[in-house]
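Work Package 3 (structural annotation) set out to generate three-dimensional models for the target panel prioritized at the project kickoff. During this period the team completed the workflow that converts sequence records into discrete structure tokens, so that structures can be stored uniformly alongside our sequence database. As a representative example, we reproduce one entry of 156 residues exactly as it appears in the project archive.
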Amino acid sequence: MIYASDIAGRALHGAWAAASDSTSPNGLKLATPDTGVANTSNALAAPADYVDVTFTADAGTPYTIWLRTQALANSKFNDSLWVQFSDAQAGGSPIYHGAYWLSQPATVTFTSSGTHTIRLQVREDGVQFDQMVLSPATYLNTPPGPATSDSTIVPR
């Protein structure tokens, strides 16, 4: 479990900033302003707007990632991120990027135990998030909350 409040300011790049939100864990979310940017084709090799998050994971253990996101002004043009792993695999093959409209799995494994990195890159600016769940058990096959209007804060 990683809350937005766990992420150090030095991990935020470009337009990402901390914002107060009483409905978020510890009252904080990470947000980008809506300036009309859309990187919808592919994740960028050298993005301007991203957040790098480190976490620990065990080798060979399946993990499913869930993010609680919110679109600024509830706009469908502010609702997506590229989620990239530094060294994840799916089905034994290396993966790094994906898109919500593709069938790339959200369940990954790692070849080594220890520290890994997730990069959250703006796909459509105006996107916000407040918690990330990387679950090897409880939420491996079932999301922690509903797909829309989610008010679930997953406890540590």
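Residues 82 and 131 are 15 Å apart (CA to CA).
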